[in-house]
Write a structure and sequence with these properties.
This is LysR family transcriptional regulator. Keywords: DNA-binding, Transcription, Transcription regulation. Pfam families: HTH_1, LysR_substrate. GO terms for molecular function: DNA binding; DNA-binding transcription factor activity. With 293 residues, the chain is an alpha/beta fold. The protein folds into three domains: 82 residues, Orthogonal Bundle (Arc Repressor Mutant, subunit A), CATH 1.10.10; 99 residues, Periplasmic binding protein-like II (D-Maltodextrin-Binding Protein, domain 2), CATH 3.40.190.10; 98 residues, D-Maltodextrin-Binding Protein, domain 2 (3-Layer(aba) Sandwich), CATH 3.40.190. β8, α9 and β9 form a beta-alpha-beta unit. It is elongated, with a radius of gyration of 23 Å. The N and C termini lie far apart (50 Å).
Length: 293
């Protein structure tokens, strides 16, 4: 079977459009339509519903999609490995990094990596941990930083850093007089939180569920400077990693009671070929994590 039609088929499934799939692939739309028609003829099955402008997969198409994605991923891995056997000097690393770490922990690591490996291209995707995990599982990322609390069997991880989630308040907030803050006291306050899908928010939601409390979220934003500003001015409190707090932030941090620790790791797909560029990045980041642990 020619795998090119499978690439076309996957693009159509994701975009739900022949036109957008063709644009994404950089080919003419008639070529996409002809390839899919031939694929259906060869298989003797209808794979795509073509009702007016609504494009969708048939039940047979949905089953083929599962196999097609695995075939394309395996083919791309094989081609990459064969290229590297020829002594490929350049490479690309597609890594997902959660916002908090992307802003405060990783910039010096990324710059140092580029200094050591100037021919390797770095593509950094910033987002929520669960969004990044799904992108990793789907082959859209090579590596991703994740919170290693629940790891699917399809992923393998290497420990990176251990960080404490700290209650963060203004300097004149009553919590500044405490050594630790109980979850109940925390949830009595109005909160400035990250949006759903980010580990910062997931930890708070998980804690609230365990305490049978409903968080009073007054501000929801992924902008760390805005969370800091809201907290500084006393319009709410938050919880941030210690690495995020700087001396001139005019913020006070306290541990939860009991303390909440996050184990952060860097993950990759077990069944995929990890390129030399990705292995170099993985080793570099792990080495840096040990040096700063």
């Amino acid at each position: 079977m020619d795998i090119k039609p499978l690439r076309y088929f996957i693009a159509i499934a994701k975009t739900e459009s022949f036109t957008q799939a063709a644009q994404q692939l950089g080919v003419a739309q008639p070529a996409v339509s002809m390839a899919i028609k031939k694929l259906e003829t060869d298989l003797g099955l209808t794979l795509i519903h073509r009702a007016d402008r609504n494009i969708g997969l048939t039940d047979e198409g949905k089953k083929l999609l599962l196999h097609a994605e695995k075939i394309i991923q395996a083919t791309d891995d094989a081609l990459l490995e064969m290229s590297e056997l020829k002594g490929l000097s350049q490479g690309e690393v597609r890594v997902g990094i959660p916002s908090m770490l992307g802003s405060y922990y990783f910039p010096p690591i990324l710059m140092a990596f580029r200094h050591r490996y100037p021919t390797i291209m770095l593509k950094v995707i910033e987002g929520g941990t669960w969004q990044l995990q799904k992108m990793l599982e789907n082959g859209e990322l090579d590596l991703s930083v994740i919170v290693a609390e629940t790891l699917p069997d399809s992923l393998q991880t290497q420990a990176l850093i251990r960080e404490e989630m700290l209650v963060t308040v203004a300097e004149d907030h009553p919590f500044s007089q405490l050594e630790r803050v109980s979850p109940d006291a925390f949830f009595d306050e109005e909160l400035a939180m990250f949006k759903e899908g980010y580990f910062h928010r997931r930890i708070v939601d998980k804690l609230a569920k365990a305490c049978n409390r409903t968080p009073n979220i007054g501000f929801e934003t992924n902008l760390i400077p805005l969370i800091k500003s809201i907290t500084q001015q006393g319009f709410g409190i938050s919880t941030l990693l210690a690495m995020v707090i700087e001396e001139d932030d005019k913020l006070i941090t306290r541990s939860f009671d009991p303390p909440i620790w996050l184990d952060l790791g860097i993950a990759w797909r077990k069944d995929s070929y990890l390129s030399k560029a990705n292995r170099a990045f993985l080793d570099f980041v792990s080495e840096h994590g040990r040096d700063n642990g």
